[in-house]
Write a structure and sequence with these properties.
222 residues; alpha/beta; eight-stranded parallel beta sheet; PLP-binding_barrel; Pyridoxal phosphate homeostasis protein; pyridoxal phosphate binding; PyrdxlP_homeostasis
């Protein structure tokens, strides 16, 4: 994919987000676009940075560590969000590099974050991942366990939880999964919802998404 195509992809996604916000009677500023740059090298990311995008999503700590420090030095104010699973032994590295972690999904990880964050001195936004489809191959807490896990994150491990993240099953309509996630967030007084990817982010915005994670529509297929 050429630089011009990536810039065009970004512009098209921005137009679609604006349209979805208008239809949902929301301000465009209420939705953060996370450009998912996982598996793409720095030379593919540079045109998107040049076009003004400043929030990016990565799946793996090691991959992000390898390619992002020079890009961050060139583009101050850029935010990195970890949207993939996080191993407990990578927590210190993740907290040092990322501005948000969207995959808090188990007690051992919450405990590790509870120790690492105060020591780091950094404010990292945390999202609890909810496995709305209860798919065995996916990470995330089951919907019926979310309230208890959120409470434990806050009370037992001293974490400030900003919101929830979900990835609906690929073979199901996403809307019911977005609705469930929004309902859990509301009853736990959480204002941030990381929902929606390239194929369904407009629907996610309709259901209150504050963060949409878009990769292929910007960067092309991997």
């Amino acid at each position: 994919m050429t630089s011009a195509m990536q810039a065009e992809g970004l512009a098209a996604v921005e137009q679609e987000i604006a349209r979805a916000c208008r239809e949902a009677r929301r301000e465009r500023s209420s939705v953060t676009l996370i450009a998912v740059s996982k598996t793409f090298e720095a030379d593919a990311i540079a045109p998107v940075l040049a076009a003004g995008q400043r929030v990016f999503g990565e799946n793996r700590v090691q991959e992000a560590k390898a390619k992002w420090p020079p890009l961050l030095a060139e583009h101050p104010g850029t935010q990195l969000h970890l949207i993939g699973p996080l191993q407990s032994n990578k927590v210190k590295e993740a907290v040092a590099l990322f501005d948000a972690i969207h995959s808090v999904d188990r007690p051992s990880l919450a405990e590790a974050l509870g120790k690492a964050l105060p020591a780091s001195g950094r404010a990292v936004e945390l999202f609890v991942q909810v496995n709305t489809g209860e798919e065995p191959q996916k990470a995330g807490v089951a919907p019926q366990e979310a309230d208890g896990f959120i409470a434990a994150c806050r009370e037992r491990w001293g974490l400030t939880i900003s919101g929830l993240m979900c990835i609906p099953p690929v073979d199901e309509a996403p809307a019911p999964h977005f609705a469930v996630t929004a309902k859990i967030a509301k009853r736990n007084n959480l204002t941030q919802l990381s929902m929606g990817m390239s194929a369904d982010f407009a629907t996610a915005i309709e259901f209150g998404a504050t963060h949409v994670r878009v990769g292929s529509a910007i960067f092309g297929h991997r």
